[in-house]
Amino acid sequence: MTKIGDRSGVHRRAYGVGPTVVPEEARGGADDQAKRFPAPASDAVVRGAAAAALAPPTFGEFYEQHFVGLVRLAMLLTGSKDVAADLVQDCFVGLHRHWVRVDQPLPYVRRSVMHACASHHRKAARARNRPVERPVTTELGADELSDALAALAPKQRAAIVLRFYDDLSDDDIAQALRCRPATVRSLVHRGLIELRKVIEP
Known about the structure:
66% of the residues lie in helices and 0% in strands.
């Protein structure tokens, strides 16, 4: 029985006003809300991810990316895979000593490989000029292209290999050989003439 002084029950029955019903899906806790509406990544997180993507490679990553290609380059310049691998390995050792100070490691180590190959040929030439110390050659002969490359002057051979194997521009080859781009074009031109004499007699 409703008391006279208590009109709330009468009003609710008269006007159809009852207690507020909250939908079941709206009563989820904070965890459910977070799952449905994840917070956006903070600026610090975004900046950190971008910086990581743009960060230069570590020495180990650089070694894995370029060692094989540089060995192939050195093999074309020396004619020996074993010698090429040893020379490139030595060049990477030298690069590691100066790693923190080298801004452009690939041109740096490529130039080191070029110098190492040239030094190898100079030592081999000195050995050939001393008959008493001349080693007996037991290796198999190289193919026609390797023989033709070996017959070129060292700078011509280097320019040809860098142009047609590494696909470098005149400026990049000039940087590797420490000469002018015009000199590079002359080396490539003269080298191709010599190659044609051997390959296409």
